[in-house]
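Is magnesium ion placement plausible here? Inputs below.
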Amino acid sequence: MSAVQGWVDTFRAEAQRLPGAKLPWLAGARARAIERFAALGWPTNKLEKWRHTSLALLAQQEFAVPPVDRVDLAAGALAQLRQGAEAGHWLVFIDGQFAPGLSDIGTLPAGACVDSLAGALAQRPERLEAVYGDAEEGESPAALNLALAGDGAYIELARGVAIEAPIHLVFVGGVSKGTQLVRNFIVADDGAQVTVVEHYIGRDDATSFTNTVTRVRAGRDARVTHLKLQQESAQAFHLAALDAVQARGAYFASHSLAFGARLARNDISSRLEGEGGEALLNGLYHVDGKRHVDHYTRLDHNSPRCTSRELYRGILDGTGRGVFTGRIYVAPGAVKTDAEQRSDSLLLSAGAESDARPELEIYNDDVKCAHGSTVGQIDETGLFYLRSRGLDEQHARNLLVYAFAAEVLARIGERSLRSSAAAAIRARIPGGQLLEALA
Amino acid sequence: MLKIKDLHVSVEGRKILDGLDLEVPSGEVHAIMGPNGSGKSTLAQVLAGREGFEVSGAVEWDGVDLLSLPAEERARRGLFLAFQYPVEIPGVSNAYFLRSAVNAVRRYRGEKELDAMDFLKRVKAEMQTVGMSEEFLYRSVNEGFSGGEKKRNEVLQMALLEPKLAILDETDSGLDIDALRIVADGVNRLRSPERSMIVITHYQRLLDYIVPDRVHVLSRGRIVRSGDRELALELEKRGYGWLEEERRKEPRGVGQR
Ligand SMILES: Nc1ncnc2c1ncn2[C@@H]1O[C@H](COP(=O)(O)OP(=O)(O)OP(=O)(O)O)[C@@H](O)[C@H]1O
Ligand SMILES: [Mg+2]
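Reply from A.M.:
I modeled the complex. Tokens:
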């Protein structure tokens, strides 16, 4: 099913039924995209950008799920997520399709539009044409996404509009089919402000496939915060791309929390296209067993006086593998660029492996650019200090692992999001539940 | 009562403690002085249960074989080490750390654990006596604390844990005069017939505030001289050289032919 030809066949069978199929610009882009995907195939580690992560095994993978009562399952998962969370705005998607019955968009200020992609394609196709993206963009999975994604979220804010509470997008995968393709848009006009959270969850017994693309456009002085909490099952394959473009003075933050999936690849990029933009790429991943998480990030400093901070941490156990690439491009005219990149990994077992690679490409001299990476183990001195105060060894270890993660979480500004992220990582690390009181 | 007999400690084949003997009876305060690198902190850490040393010899504390216990159990039984270099633990709030420590000890003693409210009441009172503002509860353990603030945090922990055997490793170093008094008051308040204390220091000044029952000199891995507080005054005047001199004259292994 996941062989390249299988996807091409699926496209032939379903293209006509996809939302927006009647829009000539979209039909054309989709056709070009499937062609590009067919030509490129799944990336393998012969490609520089995929050196540590090959998708070749996807070709043989079958994605199918045992039948289950879909609404019950999703409703249960949703209730768990929303426990203790603020009311806010909640959009739920089952296998990539908007589920209005489970969603609760809430009240929005004038000038804000929060809709499903399918809904927006029907209501305001001209708005989408400008931001949809074209077949040449991104890696081959992104082309597949463009060709076949039919739903997702469309969030648009007019000039100066601010949505206070976070907008939560909950993607429940592997419910009644094995694959989901999702495409989201966050379009913030000048001075607008919004926080969007993408949750990815799925059934533990499903080998599922998620392919998701989120496109962010931040206008002048806009503030967009994006948080992704990926907690798919340990059998899931998760391919994601997040592409941001920032105008003058815009602030964009991406918090990528990758805790689940058998294999997850996140391509995260932002282009700083106006003076004084500010980007924060913050990330935390956890792998155990044979799981594999790869973050490929790219920051394009195309304008003067922009600041970027990129801070990634990984916790690696079992024979898990973590990969981080931090590419920073500074254009000839982008003077007074201030870029900082760090990647730190904590290895909890001898079999775990971590690869971190900075890639700096700087075309002017008036730049402050720092990068560094570490790979380490639990600090023995810290461990002794805690034990010397009566904490048993296991508690002390768990606490130090959690503390390592907590520094990433501390950069999440919104309190409610920070605490749900903290709960999510505590659920992953051994004995983490016992650290409950730590909030 | 703490009895250390013929303690040998090495690290990676390098000998640090070389047949150390020491007894600290209950209710007494003993000072240990000695040159840099003589093994004072190593002794303190081995007593507190730090791993990674090769250790031989015997340490008996209140009738138990101390060396057989893991660090956490020593702490729960009432051993406390105030670190010469308190460790920074980013990401863990001091409040969580202190409460975990207090409750670990309480649980072991079969006492009810303190809930957040009771704990806050207790810790705030103690913080006042050691001159720490509440802000330090919400910061990460020792992270970015000044040298003196770290030492106060150690004294705070000691006050909260009420140890039976407290080992203070240069808790007076880097302290201003007021802080020095606070440390001394902290120690003196804990003094009681069941409690013993080992105070490691380079300065006889501290011993004006904490009057020791005995003073020992640790040099090159052994106790080379013990005496009353006069010894500290003498060391202040003469340094350690003369002791080294005497040790050299007196061949090792006297009594063995
Ligand atoms: N883990 C270790 N690896 C190698 N050498 C060590 C280790 N720990 C201690 N040492 C060495 O053992 C000796 C004793 O160190 P220790 O810290 O016990 O001295 P000290 O008496 O406390 O000195 P100070 O007065 O400077 O605090 C020193 O020479 C030190 O370098
Ligand atoms: Mg020392």
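Short version: The first strand of chain A starts at residue 89 and ends at 94.
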